[in-house]
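Technical annex, item 7. During the second reporting period the consortium partners agreed on a shared format for inverse folding records so that results from different sites could be compared directly. Each record opens with the tokenized structure and is followed by the designed sequence. A conforming record, contributed by the partner at site C, is shown below for reference.
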């Protein structure tokens, strides 16, 4: 194999390793810096799981986004959209609604844009938004 190909393969393997390491740390540490909320989802077996996410406030409406490769919480919220959310110590029942409208998705993606460095270190995962509607 030519030397440039070996170098390219080495760089790609190192990059994938960096992504895996970063995503693993995020999953374990679940940092709660800045504006964060905790979403509690329930899987198919009825087991509840908490995940700390960025609280995206858009004119009083609450959104969260799946912007990492590990996204079990997101799949659980789609399968069972009745979730519990804790914001500023207040826990409540919410309905997770997938944002399917392309224009709304683009608007949210622009309003809550991630810097290039973040997208690079996370491996450019696709981003999906959920609106969290309080249940009355």
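Designed sequence (site C submission):
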């Amino acid at each position: 194999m030519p030397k440039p190909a070996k170098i390219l393969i080495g760089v790609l393997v190192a990059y994938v390793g960096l992504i895996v390491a970063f995503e693993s740390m995020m999953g374990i540490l679940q940092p709660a810096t800045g504006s964060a909320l905790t979403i509690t989802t329930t899987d198919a077996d009825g087991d509840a799981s908490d995940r700390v996410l960025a609280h995206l406030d858009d004119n009083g409406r609450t959104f969260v986004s799946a912007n990492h490769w590990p996204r079990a919480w997101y799949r659980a919220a789609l399968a069972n959209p009745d979730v519990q959310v804790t914001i500023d110590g207040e826990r409540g029942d919410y309905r997770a609604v997938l944002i399917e409208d392309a224009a709304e998705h683009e608007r949210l993606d622009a309003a809550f844009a991630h810097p290039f460095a973040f997208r690079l270190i996370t491996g450019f995962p696709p981003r999906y938004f959920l609106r969290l509607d309080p249940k009355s």
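The longest helix spans residues 3-29. The longest strand covers residues 90-98. All partners now use this format for quarterly exchanges.
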